[in-house]
Fold this protein.
Amino acid sequence: MIFTASRYTFTVSPMRESAAARPYHHGDLSRALIDAARRLLEAEGPSALSLRAVAREAGVSPAAPYHHFKDKGELLEAVADQGWDMLNQALGEARRSADNVRDKLAALGVAYVCFARDHPSLYRVMYDGSRDKEDMPAHVKLDHDSAYCQVRDTLVEAGADPADEISLELATTAAWCAAHGLAEMAAFKQFDPLKTALGSEEAFFRGVFEHMKIFAGDSDS
Amino acid sequence: MIFTASRYTFTVSPMRESAAARPYHHGDLSRALIDAARRLLEAEGPSALSLRAVAREAGVSPAAPYHHFKDKGELLEAVADQGWDMLNQALGEARRSADNVRDKLAALGVAYVCFARDHPSLYRVMYDGSRDKEDMPAHVKLDHDSAYCQVRDTLVEAGADPADEISLELATTAAWCAAHGLAEMAAFKQFDPLKTALGSEEAFFRGVFEHMKIFAGDSDS
DNA sequence: TTTGTTATTTTAACAATGCTAAGATAGCTT
DNA sequence: AAGCTATCTTAGCATTGTTAAAATAACAAA
């Protein structure tokens, strides 16, 4: 679907549900902006993601986005939200497709790192917004099927005592930190020999996770 | 020590050893620039760290830095290098002051996260440069007493088999990822209740590390 | 329909940034 | 003293985020 208005030409992605009644002049521009940002992000990486470039990609003037997002940051937040939705979904699938309970948590971890590997720019945006604030990324702790809650629930399924809240929170945080740490490291090419030695990248991820007990020593706390 | 040349006034940090024979006009400008960058970083955070601001802080013209660093990135690399030196030193101290072998690795981990907590902007710079390249941050794997090597050596001291190189690399990577992940998360205020419940921030760090065995299940590999 | 209100978009402008090319300056070498 | 070269400044360019003001188009009421 292609609109032409004044001298700007731009495309509008097909409307989803009735997400929001179609606004005034040009269809759903805020969604078009988010899509344009995602397109730019995949094509050129995070450094190319300027507000003006997004507007250009969407076919509107440099100031147009400011009527839909107060800030460049607010647009990036919207992009990040989509990323979190995708990640939550990927974790859900990994969780369902794991054979036995014992492997479920490792499967979650591998799925997490694979997501970061497959969408590196998006993953960056998902965290960059939160680094300045002192809040966790959106939807990480709040939603029912948020990534965080999925990890916590999986821990309970695997035998963690849901009554010991502190221990459960610590374990969930530990899993989260481990996955995030590996996600940020995994692309370093210093790991290439290890990956080939182990046969695949996923095997490398799994191998790292298998060693995650190191900090605990051998005793059980 | 204060120089005044043309209309720019700037300070030069006291010379260290004979790091490099004192250059031409204004003393050791490249060091002065790095110091200025560090000062700005601590005072205003990473977003305020523009090359022009650094030049301003150092009392030179906006183009002066380009005779000492080919890029903004190259200056940031130099700043990051100092950060890695500091971190390596902090890890070394933590390693020496740990009572028994068993606690050494946890002490290293806590020291790592404390460094990131105490120098958040510097820590950001230390990794930001490496995210674009696909290389690990400078000096992480190369130097003798690099942070990476210290972790690996500590693992060997704690009983890891130095002959099984793959397992040792995996374990070192696991420890590194865990520490980095926690370092990036630790500032989120969602953890405040946990920190107070456990008495201190360090206790929280230790608590997370103690749960790091989760990915391994209970069996030993 | 006409009129008015309001939401959306454009144009134009500002300050700031990274960086480069040209000239000035000062130290070193001969 | 003359020349060379490294260092620094001045000016300038393209780009960025953001704002203010003007234009445009949808809608609601008369």
About this structure: The two ends of chain A are 61 Å apart (CA to CA). Chain A touches chain B through 53 residues (CB under 8 Å).
